[in-house]
Amino acid sequence: MGSFNRLHLIRQVDLFTLQLFLSAVEERQIGLAAVRENVAASTATKRIHDLESIAGIELLERTPKGVVPTPAGEVLARHVRTIFGSLEDIRAEIAAFTEGVQGDLTISSARSIIAPFLAHELGEFNRQFPLVRLVVHEIENAEIVHQVARGEADVGVFASAHELDLSGVDVQPYRRDRIVAVLPTGHRLADRDRITFADLLPENLIAVGPMVNAFRAAARRLGEDFEPRFSVRSGRVALSLVQAGLGVTAQPECLVGRDVADRVRVLELAEPWAERKICIATARGRGASPAGQALIEQLLDHPAGDGPM
């Protein structure tokens, strides 16, 4: 094969050939890639062979079961995905001039952020940009940044945590919230103004799903183990159990509604990790679409509750 030449690559390789190559990598068979792209298998085979000749290196390893990318093929596939992502960005930004802001916009966030904060903002956004089709994923906090990094969500709104891998996303601060302790009104600790996790740990500490890991980490720092007797998915369920005198809990203050706050005791949780930093994530190095940028600008201009960080 010949040596790699950038100018030769630009002149000789068309976008459709790159799409065929990417389809072959994803389908693991050139024949299936040809079906996917609606061309003859012989055409797909020749185009990919020509691409390898231009690159000067084998990009696909042929096996009896199909094809797998070589290390060089993996590199090319990664860059081709970036190229097509940039093309979609170009299309969306140009369309915004001629058609207005429109298209699909996928947002991933957690229940403890959607309910008190995002629901209102998304409603307002939908009224302002009716041509944008909103798709909302309610998922666990750790999965939010993964979806954004993988391109499965355009915008993620998540609570920052030390264990989160943020290498694949760009992050902007959005707002602050805090975790509070909630006790029955007659509890022996209810007359305090503030409380520590060490005070809560000996109690029947009711964990709402996403808080279990935070409680376990806090317990480990105290040299203790945390295995909840009550583990529930809903903050409102946890509050109802506390109200019934069955235990104590800790959860975001924004989820403790005024209708419940009058029937339980809400205390400051005096722990560094009790302050939640809520952030906005987009895929690293890739600008948001016009719709995504419009939503981010709205969130930063009109943060609810305590206000921006």
UniProtKB/TrEMBL annotation:
Start and end residues of each HTH lysR-type domain: 18-70
Pfam families: HTH_1 (PF00126), LysR_substrate (PF03466)
Top-level division of the source organism's lineage: Bacteria
PROSITE patterns with a match to the protein in the record: HTH_LYSR
GO cellular component: cytosol
Protein keywords: DNA-binding, Transcription, Transcription regulation
Gene3D superfamilies to which the protein is assigned, alphabetical: 3.40.190.290, Winged helix-like DNA-binding domain superfamily/Winged helix DNA-binding domain (1.10.10.10)
InterPro entries linked: HTH-type_LysR_regulators (IPR050950), LysR_HTH_N (IPR000847), LysR_subst-bd (IPR005119), WH-like_DNA-bd_sf (IPR036388), WH_DNA-bd_sf (IPR036390)
MF-aspect GO terms: DNA binding; DNA-binding transcription factor activity
Family to which the UniProt record says this protein belongs: Belongs to the LysR transcriptional regulatory family.
PANTHER family (alphabetical): HTH-TYPE TRANSCRIPTIONAL REGULATOR YBHD (PTHR30419), LYSR FAMILY TRANSCRIPTIONAL REGULATOR (PTHR30419:SF2)
Name of this protein: DNA-binding transcriptional LysR family regulator
Organism listed in the record: Pseudonocardia endophytica
